[in-house]
Amino acid sequence: MKKLNVGLIGYGFMGRAHSNAYLTVSQFFDLNYQPVLKAVAARDPDKVKQFAHKWGYESHYSDWRKLIEDPLVELVDIASPNDTHAEIAIAALEAGKMVLCEKPLARNLAEAQRMVDAAKKAGTRTMVWYNYRRIPAVTLAKQIVGSGKIGRIFHYRAKFLQDWTISAAVPQGGAALWRLDVDVAGSGVTGDLLAHCIDTAIWLNGELESVSAMTETFIKERPHQLTGKMTDVGIDDASAFLGRFKNGSLATFEATRYARGHKALYTLEINGEHGSIAWDLHDLHRLQWFDHKDEGAMRGWRSIHVTDGDHPYMANWWVPGLSIGYEHSFIHQVADFVNSLDEKTPAEPTFESALETEKVVDAVLRSASSKKWENV
Ligand SMILES: NC(=O)c1ccc[n+]([C@@H]2O[C@H](COP(=O)([O-])OP(=O)(O)OC[C@H]3O[C@@H](n4cnc5c(N)ncnc54)[C@H](O)[C@@H]3O)[C@@H](O)[C@H]2O)c1
Question: What is the number of structural domains in the chain?
Fold first, then answer.
């Protein structure tokens, strides 16, 4: 097996999810390349050393530029906050590296466009970690839509609900709370949570054409973790929009961090001419499917336990009936990326295709501010 030398930037939530994927993937998938944990970079020299030791990275840096300069690193994986994505990705692409980047691609459309331009110029492989595509039940939804069984699609609705920022005492900025600081995150739930819903929607149902959105910032001031000062909050705490897809179907989307009782409830539902599909992240190994072509008296929603060898990715795991989890979506994404290396078609979404999600995010934020329908 050939080696694929990985350099990871950021060792937080996603740094761990990606490291686990690189370490595990070749044990369960037959690949031509074995990911090697070559180097990791993050700002704190002691913490990055500890992380490298714990996960088995061969070297570590406290400046991501050094990791990019490392001639042994072939693939740069960006798992740091949104304000770092464009600068790191463009530098890595200019150095001729393959680049994987966490979502959202960037803080705003202009930054994302510069990343896409750099990727085109470099001609190296890119991919964005929209991992929900690789949850087997969601991939099965894609297969059902692709098979035509659902027929013409009329409605697409998605929600991503959390409740962790309701207290006004939660600070913004700094470790773990950079998502609440607009300068670092770019936007609030629109770029963070809705971006996932939008990516899956485009993948399953094609591009969106226009949107009409509203956003709200419920807590207007929060202490800043880095300065200790009360600072205006610039992110959207909640975001909802109506949309029209290019295929004529209608969309409703909602994301919030103020839905008490919901921790990470990503749900989607598609209603078509012959059937409907529903999925939710809290029950991620099940896909709900309604087939109007079933015999009348027996017609009803089926709950498909997506754990059989016939289901996407599942033949690589345990015996039928045994489920897998969130972390496996990252393992599947690495498997697809590695498998694409010898092929002409890249693993999706590339920087270029993920730009479409950035365009929708941009249109949603524009519409919330103009209070008018906006074209994507
Ligand atoms: N695909 C998903 O489902 C998913 C889930 C969570 C987060 N994310 C995305 O992943 C990225 C990271 O989020 P997270 O939750 O892992 O954040 P985190 O706060 O847990 O970790 C961020 C890491 O980046 C490091 N870092 C910060 N600034 C840096 C710099 N200038 N140079 C090098 N390292 C730096 C921090 O030290 C930390 O290790 C974000 O873009 C986020 O939107 C994606």
Answer: 2
User: What CA–CA distance (Å, rounded) separates 39 from 22?
Assistant: 12
Kindly give the distance from the C-alpha atom of residue 257 to the centroid of ligand 1, in angstroms, as a whole number. Answer: 18
* Residues 156 and 46 grouped into a single domain: no
Q: Which residue's C-alpha comes closest to atom 3 of ligand 1?
A: 131
Dump pLDDT digits (tens) for 337-355. 999 998 989 999 999 999 9
Instruction: Round to whole Å and give the CA distance between 233 and 243.
Output: 27
Res 176: pLDDT = 86
* Residues 132 and 329: beta-carbon distance below 8 Å: yes
The DSSP output letter for 31 is -
Give pLDDT, residue 344.
87
Return the amino acid letter for 242: L
Q: Which helix (H) or strand (E) holds 28?
A: helix 13-28
Residues pairing with 256 in the sheet = 161, 238
CA distance 33 to 19: 16
Q: Could you please report the per-residue DSSP string of 100-140? A: EEPSSSSSSHHHHHHHHHHHHHH---EEE--GGGGSHHHHH
Q: Say if CB 196 and CB 266 are below 8 A apart.
A: yes
One domain, residues 204 and 83? no
- Give the model confidence (pLDDT) of 172-187 as tens digits: 999 989 999 999 999 9
Nearest in space to 27 (alpha carbons), one of 347, 317, 342: 317
Q: What is the mean pLDDT of residues 36-53?
A: 98
Amino acid identity at 75: L
Of ligand 1's listed atoms, the one at least distance from the Cα of 80 is 24
Rg over CA atoms, the chain? 21
Q: Range of 226's domain?
A: 132-375
Residue from 102, 192, 331 to probe ligand 1 pocket by mutation (most atoms less than 8 Å from CB)? 102
41: Cβ–Cβ under 8 A, 6 or more apart, which residues? 7, 8, 9, 10, 48, 60, 61, 62, 63, 64, 66, 67
Query: How close is the Cα of 201 to the center of ligand 1, in Å?
Result: 24
